[in-house]
Amino acid sequence: MNKPSLRNVHYNQIINLVRDNGPISRIEISEKVKVPKPTVTRIINKLIKMNILKENGLAPSSGGRRPVLLEFNKNCYYSIGFEIGRTSMKLALTNMDGEILAFKESSYQLNDLIDDILQFAKGAVNEVIEEAKVDADLLLGMGIGLPGPVYIRDNKILKSPNFMQGKENDLPELLHQHFNFPIQFDKDSSVAALAEKWFGKGIGKSNFVYVMADEGIGCGIFLKHELYRGIHGEAGGLGHTIVDIFGKECTCGNYGCLETFVSQKIIIENVKSRLKLASTEERELFDSMDQISMSSISEAVEKGSSIAMQTLKEAGLYLGVGLSNVISYYDPEVIILGGAIGASHPILKEATSESINQRVIGTYGKQIEVTISEIKESAVLGAAALIIDDHFKIFSNSLYV
Questions:
Q1: Does the pLDDT of residue 86 top 90, yes or no?
Q2: How far separated are the first and last CA of the chain, in Å rounded?
Q3: Which of 13, 36, 63, 246 gives 20 to 30 Å between its CA and that of 375?
Q4: What pLDDT does residue 146 have?
Q5: Distance CA 235, CA 148 (A)
Q6: Pairing of strands 78-84, 156-159
Q7: Are 93 and 377 in contact (CB under 8 A)?
Q8: Secondary-structure class of domain 203-374 per CATH
Q9: Which 3 state secondary structure label does DSSP give 106?
Q10: Can you tell me the distance from the alpha carbon of 71 to that of 50, in angstroms, rounded to the nearest whole number?
Q11: How many CB atoms are closer than 10 A to CB 317?
């Protein structure tokens, strides 16, 4: 079956309009995209034939014939998202509406072999297709999200400091050899931003920043409805912006990077250090001193832990310092916080907003909304969206094929 690759701007406008506003009539579509009705009808007929749009009932009568309503067919095609993180691998099969139909996960260490990744991918792809009971011919391909930055050339990953210890490897070529569908690569924060644009709080927003605050800090940037990667694909390295030139040494070799103040490792270390000097009552608010995580820190806040609250507020303070610079550069409509840190507890979001308000000079910049992502598994879902977006050419042009 021929997969869609729709480069005509009117096709893309209509697909996106129906996806976000359906059920909707042909007349409404023509008015909103400002395209003559005969042209709209011709495009819609083709999209119906391709099974991308479908008719769904009639609109209320306004005196004449009731117009037929159209909606997006979320199960017209499917996509696979594959996240290769710093500690785990996750793979999911989704439909066009971002619904995860099957999901697989495996632990992963940075010194694992390429063969381990390949074996997981081979088995997981077959398993999710079988589990979701979808026609493999309707699979658009597989998107892959890696810890950034990522440099790929000639089907090789030339350098990725947070993947395979920064060593050159031929993972892209090996995957292309095994799978007979398209494969796209990008960094995890960019694909997570794409997930927000397709399925989350970025819908309808032309300019926004998604912050992946997790084991590291990265961000995906949308400008004028398009994913901005920079001329070399290096945009969004928020975690390695300097917030204190006299600060601690970072894993990148610089001093005072944002990640030396805000990362899962730093936050957990700060909590453990403070608990050593805390009262018995304070320690008992944590279920286990040996198994402290972002979720247990959030739970401790709910139980009244002053240490958990103080630590998250400090993390929000420094995150706000970094984001104040981002706001000054890009002036976004909204900042979306994601990852284990970003989505940990509202108190971090509030501290981030307060820090931004104290530092941003612009009147409107102080009022920029900071919100928490509601998407689960954003990098996996975003990797799947990378393939969907590549076929429909709506929000981005793929960086790595």
A1: no
A2: 21
A3: 13
A4: 86
A5: 10
A6: unpaired
A7: no
A8: alpha beta
A9: strand
A10: 13
A11: 17
Cis peptide before 23 (omega within 30 of 0): yes
Handedness of CA 197, 202, 207, 208 (dihedral sign): negative
Opening angle at CA 360, ends 358 and 365, nearest 5: 115
Cβ(1)–Cβ(137) below 8 Å: yes
Backbone angles phi, psi at 301, to 5 degrees: -60, -45
The top-level CATH class assigned to 9-72 is mainly alpha
Q: What angle do CA 36, 38, 41 make, to 5 degrees?
A: 110
pLDDT in tens, 119-178: 999 999 999 999 999 999 999 999 999 887 776 666 566 566 656 555 667 788 888 888
Backbone angles phi, psi at 216, to 5 degrees: -135, -175
Burial of 290 (0-12, 13-18, 19+ CB in 10 A): exposed
pLDDT above 70 covers a percentage of the chain that reads 89
For the chain, the structural domain boundaries read 9-72, 78-196+379-392, 203-374
Q: Is the pLDDT of residue 204 over 90?
A: no
Tokens of 178: 């095994």
**What are the angstrom distances between the C-alpha of 288 and each of 70, 215, 297, 304, 306?**
54, 21, 11, 16, 17
Hey, which CATH number is domain 78-196+379-392, 3.40.720.10, 3.30.420.40, 1.10.510.10, 3.30.70.940? 3.30.420.40
